[in-house]
Amino acid sequence: MHSHNYRLPQPFKDEVVVLIGNSASADDISRDIAGSAKEVHVASWSNPADTYIKQTGHTNLWMHSMIERVHEDGSVVFQNGKTVLGDAIMHCTGYKYHFPFLDTNGCVAVDDNRVGPLYKHIFPPALAPSLSFVGLPCKVGSSKIAIPVTFRKSEKQRNGGKICFWRVS
Which residues, if any, are the signal sequence (predicted)? Predict the structure, then answer.
């Protein structure tokens, strides 16, 4: 399974889940799944080969070095020598930005998988404030913190200094 297809943690209840990757999607999904899965193991090539770290604040979430091999019985062997019997493996290996539905007349482009130009990583100068990329993942911090703050700032700018709260149900 690829992280693109992930929606809810409930299908992973009481399972041992192995995530491959260590960026925004792996971070978000691992913490989300940890609430219902038996164990969550995150494998990353960016971790040293001997990595085996339990994540602070979680009783069932571990960081590992990359996967060395996977056996037909579902056992996953990491470079650090640890082996787990996984119920599910999810690839959190990235994605490419693509906006075929958006006609910006060349004012916004995707180049080397970066969307731009964007003022404050949100507003395309030629189209602001009518178009905003609120919550567009970028490698500057946790999206769980950045998205609500960015949304309020965007709403405030579009509504003449007033923050309008609304709820989707």
Answer: none
